[in-house]
Here is the input.
Amino acid sequence: MAALKQLLLERSVKRGSFVLASGKHSDIYVDARLTTMSPEGMLIIGKLGLAMILEHSWHPDSIGGLTMGADPVAFAISHTSALEGSLLRAFSVRKETKAHGTGNQIEGPFQKGDRVVVIEDVITTGKSAIQAIDVIERFGGNILGVMAVVDRQDGGREAIGARGYEVVALTNMGDLKT
Here is the structure.
């Protein structure tokens, strides 16, 4: 976890005055994609994310969440699972149904009946994870829980918990304020 925290602090944590997607103001912004899309970040997050999923005795068939924040995290964990022989399929959830081609809202090898861990890069209010949960359930997925890289500790864990799902995070804002 120390390597992830250091990478996030070096690359993703910005200090200043920011308006978050939730509309709230914050003096810290976490652009997790600067870490999750980097080779080092993918290596670290893949290993830590897979370990956390297994530690919580979740046995998913697939993992994914709302594009774009969840994508590199899910793909890194999926890749690591292949190296370790557990083969978790990764997918992306679109915010809206695609208006052309196959008209998919879930892209990738997701299958109806899959046991799913929903992935997030940063949880703030929980809105993105809940949106992904709603889509995945509508298409026949069974949610096991939610795993995030960063929990901003701003009510998201509680909002998702109110829906009946456990939330785990690799790190949180308390860790990143140092």
